[in-house]
Amino acid sequence: xxxxxxxxxxxxxxxxxxxxxxxxxxxxxxxxxxxxxxxxxxxxxxxxxxxxxxxxxxxxxxxxxxxxxxxxxxxxxxxxxxxxxxxxxxxxxxxxxxxxxxxxxxxxxxxxxxxxxxxxxxxxxxxxxxxxxxxxxxxxxxxxxxxxxxxxxxxxxxxxxxxxxxxxxxxxxxxxxxxxxxxxxxxxxxxxxxxxxxxxxxxxxxxxxxxxxxxxxxxxxxxxxxxxxxxxxxxxxxxxxxxxxxxxxxxxxxxxxxxxxxxxxxxxxxxxxxxxxxxxxxxxxxxxxxxxxxxxxxxxxxxxxxxxxxxxxxxxxxxxxxxxxxxxxxxxxxx
Length: 335
Hints:
It is a single chain. This protein is an alpha/beta fold. It contains 15 helices and five strands. A five-stranded parallel β-sheet has the order 2-3-4-1-5, with helices on both faces. The longest helix is centred in the C-terminal third of the chain and has 20 residues, at 232-251. It starts with 10 loop residues before the first strand and ends in a 5-residue tail after the last helix.
């Protein structure tokens, strides 16, 4: 005999600052509630809004037809005193027909309220931004939900090139699943599918830069920009990610095993050898490496619209700035 599904907690808290995870908690909770209760009326309230308390009171009060109600209260870290009091009251004496889904961006503000709600039985779901191993594990699990797999190298290429934005990463994985038949999806599949489409060629430019191969780096950059337009932001992100990984692996020390160095740097073991090779090309020229870090910081601001009024660049200026960055960074001799 199948076991009945656990009842939905009267209060669910999506706790963290990763928008995709928060959205999924809210959406999944409402889906489960509809499966449990049937038709559900959903009301969304900002916890610091002028009418938030009145809206919360009305939505959680018994209604004439006894309809099931779900109230999504966003930003409870900013809750007014009235909303705070109503949430505490609901936690201790919930209306029979109502459920609450709360969002909190993380941090200590509003912690007293959250502790009180959890003590009364609220369920808190972690929605913090994912990095390093946690991000990789999430992507592997996401791919498994499609009954597909990706190699470690393919996952790394996707992260290095798309960046850390979880919504972009999951969207990219969905595209791969839809259009790539190979299983597991491999490094070449990622390169072939995204080259010239979404800027996922950033890893190729970054590898050439940190290998100190300026001609190849510049050629890859020009091909990518020709096919895809303005890729300045993902390109700078890929270069910065490569530099961070090199420094982290170097800090682990040459005698550290590949597995331990990978764990310290937050990269897959297969990549440690490449990063150590890249570090060997820079270890005797650390002043240039420091200068490269400064140049990357300046390029990041320029790529995102400039660091001051009137400093925004048009696409051609961004390409010129990127070419200069690539040449200055990857060259073995001062420019």
